[in-house]
Amino acid sequence: MTYLEIYNLLKSRFNLLDEKIDIPELETRIINIPFESFSHSLLPGEDSYNCNEHNVTFDQAYDLASKLRTPHLNEIIETPDSKITENVKFNYSILVPIEVKKSKKTEKNIIKKNKVNGTIILLHGLNEKDWSKYLPWAYKLMEQTGKQVILFPIAFHMNRTPTKWIDPRFLRTANIERKEIFPNVANSSFANIALSARLQFHPQRFLWSGLQSFYDVMQLIHEIRSGLHPHIKKKSTIDFFAYSIGSFLANILMLTNSYNYLSKSKLFNFCGGPTLNRMNAASKYILDSEANISVYSFYIERLEGELKKDERLRHYFSDLHPVGKYFRSMLEFHKMQDFREKRFKELHKQISAIALKQDFVVPPSEVLNTLKGSDNKIPTKVRVMDFNYKYDHVIPFPPTKKLEKEVDKSFNRVFRFATKHLK
Prior knowledge:
- This protein is of the alpha/beta class and 423 residues long.
- It has one domain (3-422): Alpha/Beta hydrolase fold, catalytic domain (Rossmann fold, 3-Layer(aba) Sandwich).
- It has 15 helices and 12 strands.
- Helix 2 (71-78) packs across helix 6, helix 4 packs across helix 15 and helix 6 (193-201) packs parallel to helix 9 (289-301).
- The longest helix has 22 residues, at 204-225.
């Protein structure tokens, strides 16, 4: 099957509600598993905060009240993060290989689950609400490595978002309100209004939702390593395929290596890998210009001052929390550079990447700079590719009939390189 055929078939069959979905044509089974995040109390919306690991209490709370006279926009901005139930309890999917045989007596399919060689966790990009684009990626990873592939949603993305944040009518109205207040805003759209508004007024949300995502992935891995996962053996290898901001998270997971769970894990970055200040997130599909400026200003220009004002932020960015320290090292290229590059050098055999020549969100030069180091002495395998059709960061493989052959060729080229690393 071509990429387009695989895309259309998986998109037509996939959902997050059925416990099990068999797709005999692709010898694939999709299993949906419930998950409850234990880390949501990190998020804005609580009256006080505790770091149980260090027995520290922080009395500060975030004032989420909006002074704008915009009912739809205010609802987006003011909704307390920690109280959003969709972000706490949700389903994630696993693609597993199956063997399909026809019964000689009944002519019906007999399905047997194949033995798997390990587990790959796939982490998606920023402001994503739908898994369709990633289904062929997960399938190809499964098919070529023999490993099961987990589609795990980052906090407040995919099915972890309130229904209003994916309601086009509500979002269009909120976007009109936003443009009235900020008439010069660029790249504003109903697709990015929810994320943009929430990050513009409270850029701390980027850190806290990022930490929740980090701890959620570690919670999943701990469940596997403890032998508590219903479908994955405790000794299964655990690797990552990560894209865009998912690469930012995956790199921090690998750099931190909590509990030594990831000492033998491998990571493949696709269109991802640079420090935050070397990415260009301004896009109608990702962040509008106001949100992009706010996030950049907070984490790159004002961070030292913000740390003096925010005791909890200072605590999580200290040596007491390695994840916070590595998160900080991935914010600005020239800060904590020796610390970051020393660790990347230790991991060079475990990490590989593909960057795309026409990707202006994650420029190839910045993937090379971060993963191979400023002096190009880290021997991490990074390949820069280009395709014979128009593409961009958000849609590297357009699912159109007109480009079917060329897209199929490029898709297979990328995943041959990726699966060679992840086998």
